[in-house]
Design a protein that fits this description.
The strands form 4 sheets. Strands 7-6-8-9-1-10-15-14-13 form a 9-stranded mixed sheet, with helices on both faces. It has a two-stranded antiparallel sheet with strand order 2-3. Helix content is 34%, strand content 23%. The radius of gyration is 20 Å and the shape is globular.
Length: 412
Amino acid sequence: MTVYLRSLETAVPPTALIQSEARDVFAAQPGLTRLGSRLVSTCFDSAAIDTRYTAVQELTTNSRADDPQFFDPDTGLLRSPSTKVRNDIFATEATKLFIEAARRAVDSSPGTALLDITHLITVSCTGFFNPGPDYKIVRALGLNPAVQRYHLGFMGCYAAFPALRAAKSFCEADPDAVVLVVCAELCSLHVRTSNDPDTIMGSALFADGAAAAIVTAREDPDAPALLQLDHFETVLTPVGEESMAWNIGDEGFEMVLGNYVPHIIDDHIIGALEPLLQREPALRDLPYRDIRHWAIHPGGRSILDKVQSRLELTDQQLLPARETLRNFGNMSSATVLFVLKHILDLPSEPGDERICSMAFGPGLTVETAMFTKLPAAPRAAHPAEQAEGAQDVNTGANAGGSTSGQPEPSLA
């Protein structure tokens, strides 16, 4: 049975963080050592990021609070709120992104009514609350209260793949199933000043965003699908368990992102791809660059560099990942769906348009997927185009989306 992705939409919060300005704020913090200050400049400047988005409205130059929790614009000092304070903001602000992305995915799937949705899968690793985002989406959109709900929590940057794989399995088990998948992450809630290299790297890379998709096996000649979901595979590298992790601390969640991670990926990416490519004889001995599109999770610039070099991919094949990183930063689980949307928004080309996709996360876990871009896919606005005015990405404040107007200036 063939399972399709019928829509894919993205959303970001309204507050823009300019990378160079954020660097200057982090580099000016009084607790930094001389080495820490150098690391801040190096990590921010080498991240290949221009702009990110944050749900923390306090991180703006024109924001004033009686008791600032994250940033005091008068003194230029970053604060260290407790995990509870950060998580309370997650419950409010992540709900807005979950609902907005979900609404956009349903609205952009012709022929899909709200009551058609049989399953809902939500994904996040940057906060917790209950009743959770799955419940909030059902209530806000008016889905059938009996919809089957699942939440994938705290898996990390690769979690969109288990969500899509589960959606595919639901549809194969029930040909009438319609699955709504929504990933939303507020990584910026957990940034803080530190001399620790992993914390500095996280502050330079991570951002907020959401993506949602409709998955179904239903055929609808009047509403052509975007993608065919072909195969999924999971591989654990033999080393790296200590090099990438996501822990809960007293002052937010703590990222472990060792500088050896790109080398681990470099050493093991060929083996990680093998189970996926073995699924089809035509792909087994095909040069990697002969697969038309590559949707790689941009965990960081150095990871993309290693992937491109090891697989001998062209600059054009890495462009969707590098542009997503440049315009949005690393939004954890939602990021690879931004990359996939970039590819879907490209004009269709003659011939077979296969997409090989990869994401990396704690473990070290490598999730891979093979998709087929369908020629009838409609041309939609690319999220990079929408980011020039975040209100174009997040419409409908009553649904929890951002208000209209240009993105607010960053803290930074």
